[in-house]
Amino acid sequence: MSILIGIDDTDNKESRGTGFHARQLAARLEKEFMVTVNGITRHQQLVHPDVPYTSQNSSACIEISDTNIDELIKFCRNHLIDNQVPGCDIGLCIAPKEKISKEIISFAQSVKKVVVNRAMARETAARNRVFLEGLCGTEDGIIGALSATGLRKSGNDGRFIWLAGSVKELRDLPEGVMTLAELKRLSGITAARTPEGKIVEDTDAILLNHWVRPILENGKAVLIVVSASLDQQVSASLDQQVSASLDQQVPASLDQQVPASLDQQDKTIKQIHYEWETAGKDIVRKLSD
Fold first, then answer.
1. What pTM, to 2 d.p., does this model score?
2. In the Cβ-directed half-sphere of 42, how many Cα atoms lie within 13 Å?
3. CA atoms of 22 and 6, how far apart (whole Å)
4. pLDDT tens-digit profile of 216-260?
5. Which CATH number describes the domain made up of 2-157?
């Protein structure tokens, strides 16, 4: 069994966003609460003049391994309160994944389309016996917090910002070329496809850019890629840049997991061919928001 933690409205216009706070909380949960973080997803809600939000109106959901719910609630509540910023309206939702019902999923999907209020969120959580609490301010964050758990449970919404791979924070993945099989081992990404639905093979080479964000699709972390001309090549100079990036971003314990094509010690590589490259932000946002 796993547990879902939904958070929202943790920021103000000058502070770091909800995604940052979700990653900070996840890191503490792994280190201090001794759980496994299976992933963090970002979920988009309705942007509308009648909906108060800070910048993009997105919430986050952290999925962790099973643990004591009561102690988890105390830990998360204290962390969010201790790190609150002026003007935030934090909402926190915590529940076993199996308790996120069809009603909660339906509520979450409605939050993406229509204006809802705090009372509707509280009533939905109460009927399903799911913990939902506003921690400060107007407590508007309870809407996004509950919605995040429903959208995560749906298995078909949002995009990952953290996965349970060797490189957990996806922003820390090294730029460069690797096969899908190598990427799976390193990141926890489970599949890759094009926007049109063509499935990428494990042996196919993919050029990773600085913004790798797999979407949540059918409960899996699916990387969206676009076709690259087969005669496109990455020169030795880019190979050197990738090696330098690895030195800065990948812990020494991961050295053996980094593909040979990216290994700084491999001086024989002059050119790298690749079939695919990671899709741009606009494409990924269209598929995940």
1. 0.83
2. 23
3. 9
4. 999 999 999 999 854 454 443 344 444 444 455 444 444 444 444
5. 3.30.70.2200
